[in-house]
Amino acid sequence: MRRLVPIALLGAVAVSVASAGPAVAERLVVSLSNHRVMVTSNFVGEELVLFGGIERDAATRPRRGDYDIIVTVTGPRQSVVTFRKARVLGIWVNADSREFEGAPAYLAVLSNRPLDAITNAETLRRLQLGLDNIPLTPSGNANAADLAGDDSFRSAFIKIEMDRGLYRETSNAVTFLAPQLFRASIPLPAEVPIGTYEVDVRLFADGAQIARAPAPFEVYKFGFEQVVSAAARDHGLLYGLATALMAIMTGWFASVIFRRD
Amino acid sequence: MQIYLPIADLPVNVFVILAMGLAVGFISGMFGIGGGFLMTPLLIFLGITPAVAVASVASHIAASSMSGAISYWRRRAIDLALAFMLLAGGIVGTAFGVWLFTLLRGLGQLDITIGVSYVLLLGIVGALMVVESVRAIIRARQGKPVELRRPGSHTWVHGLPFKLRFKRSRIYVSAIPVWGIGFMMGFVGAVMGIGGGFILVPLLIYVLRVPTATVIGTSMVLTMVTMASATVMHAATNHLVDALLALILMVGGVIGAQFGARAGQRISGERLRLLLGLLVLAVGIRFAANLVLPPETLYSVRAIEPNL
Fold first, then answer.
1. Inter-chain CB pairs, A–B, below 8 Å
2. Phi then psi for A165, rounded to 5 degrees?
3. Distance from B259 to chain A by nearest Cα, in Å?
4. What is the nearest CA distance from A46 to chain B, expressed in angstroms?
5. ∠ CA B230-B196-B269 to the nearest 5 degrees?
6. By C-alpha distance, which of B252, B257, B250, B200 is closest to B223?
7. In chain B, positions 70-109, which contact chain A (CB-CB < 8 Å)?
8. Which residues of B touch A223 (CB under 8 A)?
9. Which chain B residue shows the shortest CA-CA distance from A219?
């Protein structure tokens, strides 16, 4: 049986270099503390916990260094415009803008140590890991100058999102509880967008990616929040009439209460 | 106490919103203005997107002007005939304003147009009101009789045809300036996203010579109708009215408006106009500073609404 392993290994390598044969390399098992994050009227944000184990079997070849984990959490995608102000006739106006199509509304890159310590810049760029390497291409009025490396709009956009707490890169968010057992905390701020989130867990060893596992979750409105937003979306006119009526009733009610006779 | 807003998609402190509603409601009851030009920037400051803020503030203004209007109605300080005539012009003005709004947005120059028109409008209206009311107060201090409306003090406005008699306000004016003012208010309201009460009140006082007693109540009726219909329009087209946010604002707003209306009746007309003039001027200067001073960050980000 043992003699066959190297042949199987060769075969696996030949078939898929990048994803590494699961039978022989490490296997990544991950699980989230909650797959469905409910947004109710007292929602003030939540912290999801991701647990993961690295499975080895007798055939796995020993590693020289320790394992590293990079977790990328990507929220629902949207199109955003970044504006740059300039002075025109003494007043500041939005003079220039770039539109980024399909930018994630939430993005967290979590790891157990700085990304550049885990692997080299070339690999990070190829795998699109880290805030510096996420694919964000301007569309619309992008011109040659932008494509040639003027990424001031891109870095300004990332900085604004980081200030809002929606983009983050944390190099100590993943902790190893044991050499083959880790835990990562995913902070979801109160302003977290509604939608489906992808969690991409990548296992690195000796600077190379050796395993990868997904763990999607969903952020959704529940109860009163869900009823109101569904009504506003599906029955706009009725919802508007009801709100206007509510306003008039509130005004009338107040004048009855405060009547001084 | 934090509560999550279903349309604005973020949690807010109920007491902060309630206090803002109270404060703006007080001002709105006192001067007979909607207060949208104060409330919308406050909500945006809390992190609510401008579109949701504008749409939700409309219903808050409707509620506080309803509550204010009822108290003026009891004091027989509303000229309904005048309000209806203004409204007729207002509807046409709103339609024209919405058309221009869409055109400017298409050209990508909406933000700057709104900014500059805020500064010009608030600056001019505020300055005029301050100057006029200070003069009136000085005249009163010097012991000269407060200028009464004399039958002979007519301007060219009073020479226009199609004259109508508004009994409650005791004025006899042409329908043309009444429709014109209504049109202008509807137009400005649609383009700038405000009720326009702070323009309406001085126009009624200075152009139509409507007595201060009926001007505020009449303006409130008008604001209530335009803002209630704006709520319905915003909800039906953009789906951005946050009913929960609106409700919290309303509860604060209507209570504030009651106290504001009482405070307003105790202050003399000139002083009231001076205070409103200063307030309008201050907001205008604030907007001007925003346009002229170097911004903290050159960059800003806006998500493109998928349903627009």
1. 194
2. 80, 10
3. 9
4. 13
5. 135
6. B200
7. 70-71, 74
8. none
9. B9
Q: Is A100 on the interface with B (CB under 8 A)?
A: no
Please give the single-letter amino acid code of residue B189.
G
Burial of B162 (0-12, 13-18, 19+ CB in 10 A): exposed
Per DSSP, the residues of chain B read -EEEETTTTEEEEHHHHHHHHHHHHHHHHHHT---HHHHHHHHHHTT--HHHHHHHHHHHHHHHHHHHHHHHHHTT---HHHHHHHHHHHHHHHHHHHHHHHHHHHHT-HHHHHHHHHHHHHHHHHHHHHHHHHHHHHHHHTTPPP----TT---GGGG-SSEEEETTTTEEEEHHHHHHHHHHHHHHHHHHTS--HHHHHHHHHHTS---HHHHHHHHHHHHHHHHHHHHHHHHHHT----HHHHHHHHHHHHHHHHHHHHHHHHS-HHHHHHHHHHHHHHHHHHHHHHHHSPPS-SEEEEEPPTT-
Ranges A62-66, B18-22, B86-90: which has the least confidence = A62-66
What is the ipTM score, two decimals?
A: 0.77
Chain A from 143 to 162: CB within 8 A of any B CB: 153, 156-157, 159-161
- Of the partner residues A90, A236, A259, the one whose CB lies closest to the CB of residue B235: A236
Look at strands B299-303 and A36-39 and give their pairing: unpaired
Q: Are B55 and B94 in contact (CB under 8 A)?
A: no
Token pair listed for B40 = 């919308």
| Lowest mean pLDDT across A15-29, B218-232, B239-253 | A15-29
Q: What is the pLDDT of residues B125-168, one digit of tens each?
A: 889 888 888 888 888 888 766 555 544 455 666 667 677 777 77
Radius of gyration of chain B (CA): 19
The tens digit of pLDDT for each residue in B41-65 reads 888 888 887 778 878 888 888 888 8
- Give the percent of chain B with pLDDT over 90: 6
Residue type, B120: L
User: According to the model, what pLDDT value does residue A202 have?
Assistant: 93
| DSSP H or E segment with residue A210 | strand A208-214
Q: Is the pTM of this model over 0.80?
A: no
**How many residues comprise chain A?**
261
Contacts 24+ apart (CB under 8 A), B18-21: B18/B248, B18/B251, B18/B252, B19/B252, B20/B249, B20/B252, B21/B60, B21/B64, B21/B248, B21/B249, B21/B250, B21/B251, B21/B252, B21/B253, B21/B255, B21/B256
Question: Which chain B residues are within 8 Å of A81, Cβ to Cβ?
Answer: 301-302, 304
Measure in Å the smallest separation between the Cα of A250 and chain B Cα atoms: 6
B303·A191 Cβ contact <8 A? no
Q: How far apart are the first and last CA of chain A?
A: 99
pLDDT of residue A169: 93
pLDDT of A49 over the 90 cut = yes
Cα–Cα distance list, B222 to B89, B250, B280 (Å) = 11, 18, 20
